[in-house]
Design a protein that fits this description.
The protein is of the alpha+beta class and 735 residues long. It folds into six domains: 60 residues, Winged helix-like DNA-binding domain superfamily/Winged helix DNA-binding domain (Arc Repressor Mutant, subunit A, Orthogonal Bundle); 68 residues, Beta Barrel (OB fold (Dihydrolipoamide Acetyltransferase, E2P)); 68 residues, OB fold (Dihydrolipoamide Acetyltransferase, E2P); 289 residues, no CATH class; 55 residues; 107 residues, Beta Barrel (OB fold (Dihydrolipoamide Acetyltransferase, E2P)), CATH 2.40.50.140. The chain has 16 helices and 34 strands. Strand 15 and strand 16 form a beta hairpin.
Amino acid sequence: MNLKELILNIVNDENYEVMTIKELEKYLQVDKYTKKVVYEELKNLEKENKLRISHKKKIMPLSEEEKSLIGEISLAQAGYGFFISDNKDFKDVFISKDNLNKAFDGDKVKIEIIKAAEKGKNAEGRVVEIIKRANKKVVGTFQESKGFGFVVADNKSIGQDIYIDKKLSKKAKNKDKVVAEIINYPKKGKPEGRIIDIIGHKNDKNVDIYSLAAQHGIPYQFSKETKKEVLYINKEVKEDELENRTDFRDLFTVTIDGRDSKDFDDAISIEKNGENYDLYVHIADVSHYVKRSTAIDYDAYDRGNSTYLYNVVIPMLPKELSNGICSLNPNVDRLTVSLKMTINKKGKIIANDFYKSVINSNHRLVYDDVNKFIDDSDSSVYEDEILKEKLLIFNDLHKILRAKREDRGAIDFDFTESQIDVTDDGKVLNISVHERGSGNKMIEEFMLAANETVATLFGYMDFPFIYRIHEKPSKDKLDGFKQALNTMGYNIRGNELHPKDFQRILEEVEGESEANVINLLMLRTMQKAKYSKKRDIHFGLSTEFYTHFTSPIRRYPDLIVHRLLKTYIDNRLNKLNQVSLENSLEKSSEHLSMTERRSEDTERDVEDLMKCKYMRRFIGEEFTGTISSVTDFGIFVELDNTVEGLFMYKFSPDRFEYQEESLKAVNTDNHKIYSIGDEVRIKVINVDIYSRNIDFDLLEENETVSQQQESLSWLLHRKKIWSRHRITRQWGKKY
């Protein structure tokens, strides 16, 4: 426990008797050397609004009301916003544009209530103190003027332009996309900043995608030091690198990836061993090339993971590594870390071994072809008879492992995913539903098994490690989920639900009209998976131990795992400083969970951008869609191709009443009721590329048939602002 935590524990203890600063110092038995440290920490805690210090130097805990009035500002594009308290039970407070006191979107603030809440209306407040600024960097378009310029932020919730002195413009030209750092928030006038990066001209190829990446804080350029180090990396495996490695080059080995993939970090081999299967999972030995504390390593850690933005990839590693020497390309020697699992016919792993190894992949396969061969029984896809035989054995084992995982209750969400075809210059050709076949599911099962096996090894050793955890749903969310299902005719009893119960629900509704709604309800009930040094369950996979080991080219956590695993293979774990390792893993877990969320947010924004680009050509056209959400400001409708748009009540000549209890909308002029899951006709009336919003008009001539009859009021979290509607469908990500 550090000093900060110690002080807060003392002050917030229910038996705490108010002390002065001197009394606290005496209580802590500080000496003259640490007295200053304690005083500085107290002042920092006061500044952070964690406690109060009176004019008589008394240290006071914050009241519940004071705590509730500290939180974050969420701004709408119109300039007003909502205060979201750190106290989750405290209802959001409306903040008008005039009462923001120059607070920006995401700022940590303290407010006061100026108007109490009324029926159907939020309380109104005023920002009285800005505790911490969220936007130190702003991405936008530079507007040049004589002697100075302005940056107009891409994020429209940042309501003010940023003033840039000419000396601080970095020679940016008019209409350049730039990154500006805010250096001053004056009491009067616009925020002042300086240009720290020029992304490109507003009309340059893919500049909109790189701007979104920069907006989310993703580094998209490697350092000069990294570029220098890359020059000294071998382009092929040398003979002396094979020393102390197991030679698996004679094994029949394949990779299976998407058709456009260029970085292959996993390969598989299989042998039938009587009634058992010997499955080999070979993973690129990235740690051989990326050493600790090198520039490449620092850049990789900073990024945390690769970010895939359709026609643009921001890789974790330079392409010389990710697409070159680390990638398990066919018919070339590659260094790997291999896991051999012996699996019986019931799907139980009865033995496993780890190797530092070398492989030579026989084939680079793509999912589409494998799916044709297995799912469509199209034997003409391949000529190699050995390959055909191996694929059938792979498929047999995949079915066994899948059945085993389903039997223990692993949750397998069935969402429709977008397939967006984009040209190199960013033109969107088509949007369709992405279908997952046996090839996709096969690799997923094998990688899940490998990840679990590695985590189990370190879990039973009780050695410091980085786990992938997925905590149980909270009681509040679980209660809401059960209530919603009960109203739809699905009775769920018991105070706790096992993953198996969730899987059983999904199986029960499969093929039903409400299946997608229930999948979404269930997803929103779940916690977010994250990295942790603490061993905990992975609820969604229904397993006690889980980690990420199979993708070190594109995920830094996997690289950490590889380094630890190779130390184990070399029998050198006892030489590691476990205390230092624990501290390092704690810091890394937090950072890498953040970088993952950052990439997901960017990927989601780019997906919205691509869908907007595509739908611009359909303005004025009509489509059939399904209501995905009903809110107090409008109805979200999802089309068959996964594109989602919003019908807003205020733009309709008819009057609509939102029924929060049942999450329905009623057209009070014709008494039509709109519920989640209803099929409706819409017209595309507007597409805003910059805000990434699509507006629909609801066509009233078509009757809707209500599919959900009762309360789903808990469904939407924070429904005030359109952009906050977004919900990740990537809780599981790729194994």
